[in-house]
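Appendix B: a complete holo record

For completeness, this appendix reproduces one full record from the ligand-bound portion of the collection. The bound molecule is pyridoxal-5'-phosphate. The inputs are the chain sequence and the ligand SMILES; the output is the full three-dimensional arrangement of the complex, encoded as structure tokens. No fields have been trimmed.
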Amino acid sequence: MNKPIYVTQPSLPPLEEFMPYLHKIWENKILTNGGPFHQQLEKELCDYLGVKYISLFANATIALVTALQALRITGEVITTPYSFVATAHSLLWNGIKPVFVDIDPKTLNLDPSKIEAAITSQTKAIMPVHCYGQPCDVEAIQKIADMYNLKVIYDAAHAFGVKCHCGSVLNHGDLSVLSFHATKVFNTFEGGAIISPDAKTKYHIDHLKNFGFVDEVTVAAPGINGKMSELNAAFGLLQLKHIDDAILRRNEIDRTYREALKDVKGITCLNGNSSIEKNYSYFTILVEDEYPLSRDALYEKLKDHAIFARRYFYPLISDFPMYRGLPSSSPSNLNVATNAAQRVMCLPIYPDLNREAQNRVIDILQKG
Ligand SMILES: Cc1ncc(COP(=O)(O)O)c(C=O)c1O
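The structure of the chain with pyridoxal-5'-phosphate bound, as generated:
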């Protein structure tokens, strides 16, 4: 039986490299509450990512919930149905009504040309996702936001280190939220962060993630416990030392897939765009009608060969029971997303995926 190949596998540095960090934690006995590793990681991430202010979190979902709180968003928020379910869940956790808008067929990101028609007097913000790390049309989205006085919160869970023509994609919108979950390009086991444009917003967010405490006796807001621990922050510092090599290796795997699949009829590789600095977090294909197998048949065939690709994003968020009843969830409103969800598949990509394993995946896709 072949060794299983999963869609992703976390990259872990040699364990010995982590030991000095553990010794330090044991020595100073600071486990959380913005300790030295937490502070150092915030600083190093600002430098690495090219952003001004960052607040570390326990995970991206709490960070999304907190970002909405920080901007005091209520009413309705326009978002994409084509994402991980946490994007819309963060709205429900704030009592906000999600309004789903269809996606662009090329990038599978929120389609700016469809946003205006969904704006009502209750709309307070737009929450787009840089899906698979592919930047949204940030200029078009900002133009609409400015015209209608809306906030923009980017779910940038996939966009660690991504740069477009104007620098880090994380500097767009009012806030951006990163995920450092184990499956992400940069992971801290669990973790996340909010990127703020100014110090005042960062400090407000820092209070919100610590129960609202401003000092020992002052609670300024009904905050939550969203803090990242010292253990996670220390691991992040170590991961940062290896991140460039990890992204380089992902780039090689991406290139190999593109070359091997370019002549396979019915397989479309997404996001070949070379004008952006990518992180190669996902390798996404669409299985079109000309391919000899349906997407699901191919998915099952890969599984039979112990290759566990994933159908990100299927089902659409709008198809889950807590969203299905919303008027904007109707498939007729979401033609492009509905179609993409039926065809999409993410192939295995991670730094330790060796050539032999990748060839096993390619072989099956080429044979059909
Ligand atoms: C687009 C998107 N948003 C939010 C999340 C939630 O991140 P976390 O697991 O860090 O809470 C994820 C993935 O995990 C995601 O893919």
